[in-house]
TrEMBL record:
Residues annotated as transmembrane: none
Protein name: RpiR family transcriptional regulator
Native organism: Rhodococcus erythropolis
GO biological process: carbohydrate derivative metabolic process
Record keywords, A-Z: DNA-binding, Transcription, Transcription regulation
Length: 292
């Protein structure tokens, strides 16, 4: 695994490890799992301490850190200490929250911090390839189910508003039927935070069998969706006090898809004119409805 191009932003180290850890060998994966489960202890342990807790060797600990994209064990420790300090401040702020608006501000602060590190695991080359594929495709089918369903619908609407024809059936059966009729000139954009949702994997498989390009957007580097996809776009997730509520993961996913849509529009050119024409058309439809 290549070294990270830049250090993860403050708060982004654990989300980066969580996204990339599935790619490690089993003994190295144990090192990553210990780091994710016990970051406070990991940050102060020696490499020998980590090796003992992970039932492996010191050399494996160092190699695991390097295969996660860090320069080495000490580099990872430094980033963990940095993030833990920032996280502790956020937790203290949250614990002193006395009213609803204070809680809202704390949640917004956490999401902002998680957004800052969300792109660290992203393969830049795969992203560029995905943008080009979507821009040049005859048809774009967007599939997503469960909590990823609204994101799939939202990005499809944004594609349409900016002149890029797209479709996002909400029914799982229709997703599969549509995917079977794609060709090698088409793209299936499959969205699943876990990369495990069978309702999303099935149309992605059907699209692959039909010869279409499959682009997967997920939060985990080793998942069925990434293995299936021609281009796997992996994002970091939230790690703060409200991570269990899924706040950051949902916002990160939708923000990324909006960025993807904007990049595609820029690649195609004329997006501003297309958006203006679409807006005029929408206004015309609304005016007709209001007067009928």
């Amino acid at each position: 695994m290549s070294q990270l191009q830049t250090d993860p932003p403050v708060g982004g180290t654990l989300s980066t490890i969580r996204a990339l850890a599935p790619n490690l060998a089993p003994s190295e994966r144990r090192v990553a799992d210990i780091c994710i489960a016990r970051p406070k202890e990991f940050a102060w342990w020696s490499a020998a301490d980590v090796a003992e807790h992970a039932s492996t060797s010191t050399a494996t600990v160092i190699r695991a850190c390097q295969n996660l994209g860090f320069k080495g064990f000490q580099h990872l420790r430094m980033l963990l200490l940095r993030d833990l300090g920032a996280s502790e401040s956020r937790v203290q702020d949250a614990s002193h929250t006395k009213d609803s608006i204070g809680l809202m501000q704390a949640v917004f602060g956490e999401v902002a911090a998680d957004l800052g590190g969300a792109l660290t695991p992203l393969d830049r080359e795969a992203f560029d390839q995905a943008v080009e594929a979507i821009a040049d495709a005859d048809r774009v089918l967007v599939v997503g189910n469960g909590v990823s369903g609204p994101s799939a619908s939202a990005v499809a609407v944004r594609f349409i508003l900016n002149g890029r024809t797209a479709e996002a059936p909400t029914d799982a059966v229709m997703q599969q039927l549509t995917a079977r009729h794609l060709t090698s000139r088409d793209v299936c954009l499959a969205i699943s935070d876990s990369g495990l949702n069978s309702l999303t994997l099935q149309p992605a498989h059907a699209a692959k069998e039909a010869g279409a390009i499959v682009i997967g957007v997920t939060g985990y580097a080793r998942s069925p969706l990434v293995e299936l996809a021609d281009m796997g776009l992996v994002l970091g997730g939230g790690t703060g006090p409200w991570g269990a509520h899924g706040a950051s993961a949902t916002v990160i996913q939708l923000t990324f898809l909006i960025g993807l849509q904007i990049a595609v529009s820029e690649r195609r050119g004329g997006s501003a004119e297309a958006a203006a024409q679409t807006l005029e058309h929408v206004i015309g439809i609304l005016n007709h409805v209001s007067t009928s």
